[in-house]
Design brief:
Radius of gyration: 16 Å
Protein name: Polyisoprenoid-binding protein
CATH architecture: Beta Barrel
Strand content: over 45%
InterPro entries: Lipid/polyisoprenoid-bd_YceI, TTHA0802/YceI-like_sf
Pfam families: YceI
Number of strands: 11
CATH class: Mainly Beta
Number of domains: 1
């Protein structure tokens, strides 16, 4: 799920951070089941990100998430969410995000806008984030709400929002270095 800044040029500019450190990066989520928060992660994803801290508004991203790498903390739930009613990974193995714009919203905060695709459905997403530069790395952290039913995630009996909430908080943390 998914995602956040697409590298459109093959050559990075001198000030851009483009190399993702996968050991220091993550995509996670928090949903609620019968009112109780349930946290999980996606263990496999690619993030092609280019950000110049001096000009964050020029940043780009493309994030692709391997949905089979979901970890809800429960083996039975992991298998259930891979099925047709949830992610349908047989027909839709990945979720993706492609940025279209980055806005400076003030006080060191930014917002990336783009298109999120899950289960063949594409919708616009706004994801607020912060940038922190330190010791040769750039940390991008943010989160945004996603409405799972908009993408057909959790259909049939699982569409009951009293059992599983419609809103899911997606959290991302990308640590980048210069190439």
């Amino acid at each position: 799920m998914a995602a956040l800044l697409l590298c459109t040029a093959s050559l990075a500019t001198a000030g851009e951070f483009t190399e993702l450190d996968p050991r220091q990066s993550s995509i996670s989520f928090v949903s609620k089941q019968m009112g109780v928060p349930v946290e999980g992660t996606f263990g496999k994803f690619t993030a092609r990100v280019a950000v110049d801290p001096a000009k964050p508004e020029t940043g780009t991203a493309r994030i692709d998430i391997d949905l089979a790498s979901i970890d809800t903390g429960n083996d039975d739930a992991n298998e259930e969410v891979k099925g047709k009613a949830w992610f349908d990974i047989r027909n839709h193995p990945t979720a993706g995000f492609i940025s279209s714009r980055v806005d400076n919203v003030g006080n060191g905060r930014y917002e990336v806008l783009g298109q999120m695709t899950i289960k063949g459905k594409t919708m616009s997403i706004r994801a607020p984030f912060t940038l922190t530069q330190q010791a040769g790395t750039l940390l991008i952290e943010g989160m945004f709400p996603l409405r799972r039913l908009d993408y057909g995630i959790g259909s049939g009996i699982w569409s009951d929002t009293d059992t599983v909430a419609d809103e899911v908080q997606i959290r991302f943390r990308f640590t980048l270095t210069k190439k």
